[in-house]
UniProtKB/TrEMBL annotation:
CDD domains: DRE_TIM_IPMS
Originating gene: leuA
Source organism of the structure: Halanaerobium saccharolyticum
Keyword Chloroplast in annotation: no
Superkingdom in the source lineage: Bacteria
Catalytic activity from the UniProt record: 3-methyl-2-oxobutanoate + acetyl-CoA + H2O = (2S)-2-isopropylmalate + CoA + H(+)
NCBIfam families assigned to the protein according to its UniProt record, in alphabetical order: leuA_bact, PRK00915.1-3
Protein name as catalogued: 2-isopropylmalate synthase
Listed cofactors: Mn(2+)
Length: 506
């Protein structure tokens, strides 16, 4: 049975979402989870754009196996050289070059003729071919390009060595029937198209990215470019989880083999949401909080009698499991390691000990521990990076008629520092101002702060999300604790630590 390649661009196009900044360690954690899901290609970044992006692509290339790793480059020799330097140590490296092809881009952005674009593209592919034969070529804004020029352009770059031809709907302009016809026309008009794979990259400006991608697959596309949770420029990209589950659920229609491990979807979605600070709306397809929820009495009755009356997918298919765990304060390391093995989590010994200590602390506070509790704790251990500051102690005094007072003790590279602040608009503000004073970082603008209950009951685990603007960039932090003031402080410190890591990688 034929299959479609899944090319994930969360780490490149996804990171271009307004306000998102991922440090290399976060990119590596996401890339490892993508590899567990068995996507075919990970586009790890745009190496020429910054040293930080270069380092992130290189880190992914050196530490993730079982998947192709791609780096993006404009049709410029310097870009291509930098891209190859970043991915050369990957198990299967790919160079992805692009140039615009639409009349509006040629006239206003590039100020080039069609022939100049074609020659530039051919030279770029030939230059990349010195390094690898795994070359992808993208015609930016292809959906608004002249079809005859596209065919001529694709024929030339395939002859020069491109093995993948990408047809992007860069601005989300197409509708499904039109885009499907375009794929068919490219196949018919490009004489040597059988020598290359056809890929598509659809944006969601009209809410049609997934529909357009599926229409392309029906008309011969063999690779689809996606991002986790659909994040990306403007309204985002075709969502990985929606594409994969559409093909999986409707195998009767598409007749395609699904090679991805769908049970990794929920964990991957959560990891990306936490790392980027971009929360999911409750009714988000596949991974939203309500995706498998039923409130209407008729629906509940139907599901109780037969799940498939109102559910076309089983929650377990994407890795959701609502069962309670028989784990508590008397559980030992072996029981916890069995859980990690069962759910395919990998922690080194140091991370496991940190996680085990936090688990025991939670077990002392909470009677019933669920999967959600443990997975929320694990989110804090999924990636490791240099933590300049660690929270040692926190105390908050507040109440009606009282001036909010926070006492915070941090560890900085082995040294203990402590301060108290009697100001702020409330207890959380007092905590943040005290941390600012301890770290010497006064110019932090809080962009977003929220607390979610990730588990049920009066002893529910609270998850704090922070998005803070520091030096014009957004850094996120999150932490799960039963004490929401502690979670808030830990999340705020995580955002500061990410900023410091980012600055060290620049």
């Amino acid at each position: 049975m034929a299959s479609v390649k899944i090319f994930d661009t969360t780490l490149r196009d996804g990171e271009q979402s307004p306000g998102v900044t991922l440090i290399p360690e976060e990119k590596l954690a996401i890339a490892k989870q993508l590899a567990k899901m068995k996507v075919n290609v990970i586009e790890a970044g745009f190496p020429i754009s910054s040293d930080g992006d270069f380092n992130a692509v290189k880190m992914v290339s050196e530490n993730v196996s079982g998947v192709e790793v791609a780096a993006l480059a404009r049709c410029r020799k310097g870009d291509i050289d930098r891209a190859w330097e970043a991915v050369r140590d990957a198990e299967n490296p790919r160079i992805h070059v692009f140039i615009a092809s639409s009349p509006i881009h040629l006239e206003y952005k590039l100020q080039m003729t069609e022939d100049e674009v074609l020659n530039n593209a051919v030279e770029a592919v030939k230059h990349a071919a010195q390094y690898t034969d795994n070359i992808e070529f993208s015609a930016e804004d292809a959906s608004r390009s002249d079809i005859d020029f596209l065919a001529r352009l694709f024929e030339a770059v395939i002859e020069a060595g491109a093995k993948v031809i990408n047809i992007p709907d860069t601005v989300g302009y197409s509708v499904p029937s039109e885009f499907g016809q375009m794929i068919k026309d490219v196949k018919e008009k490009t004489p040597n198209i059988d020598q290359a794979e056809i890929s598509v990259h659809c944006h969601n400006d009209l809410g049609l990215a997934v529909a357009n991608s599926l229409a392309a697959i029906e008309n011969g596309a063999t690779q689809v470019e996606v991002s986790v949770n659909g994040i990306g420029e403007r309204a985002g990209n075709a969502a990985l989880e929606e594409i994969v589950m559409a093909l999986y659920t409707r195998q009767d229609y598409y007749n395609l083999d699904i090679t991805q491990d769908t049970t990794q979807i929920a964990r991957l979605s959560k990891l990306v949401a936490n790392s980027t600070g971009i929360s999911l709306q409750a009714n988000k397809a596949i991974v939203g909080a309500n995706a498998f929820a039923h409130e209407a009495g008729i629906h509940q009755d139907g599901v109780i009698k037969e799940r498939t009356t109102y559910e076309i997918m089983d929650a377990k298919t994407i890795g959701l499991d609502h069962n309670k765990l028989v784990l508590g304060k008397h559980s030992g390391r072996h029981a916890l390691k069995d859980f990690l093995d069962k759910y395919d989590y990998e922690l080194d010994e140091e991370s496991f000990e940190s996680f085990f200590k936090r688990f025991k602390g939670l077990a002392d506070k909470k009677k019933n521990i669920s999967n959600a509790d443990i997975i929320a704790l694990l989110d804090n251990e999924l990636y490791d990076y240099e933590k300049i500051y660690e929270l040692e102690y926190i105390s908050v005094l507040t109440g009606k008629g009282l001036l909010p007072t926070a006492t915070v003790r941090l560890k900085k590279e082995g040294e203990i520092i402590q301060s108290a602040a009697c100001n702020g608009d409330g207890p959380v503000d007092a905590i943040f101002q005290t941390i600012n004073e301890l770290t010497g970082m006064e110019d932090i603008k809080l962009m977003s702060y929220k607390i979610d209950a990730v588990t049920e009951g009066k002893d529910a685990l609270g998850e704090a999300f922070i998005a803070a603007e520091i030096d014009g960039k957004i850094f996120t932090g999150h932490s799960s604790q039963t004490d929401i003031t502690e979670a808030s402080a830990a999340a705020y410190i995580e955002a500061i630590n990410k900023y410091l890591v980012y600055m060290n990688n620049k």
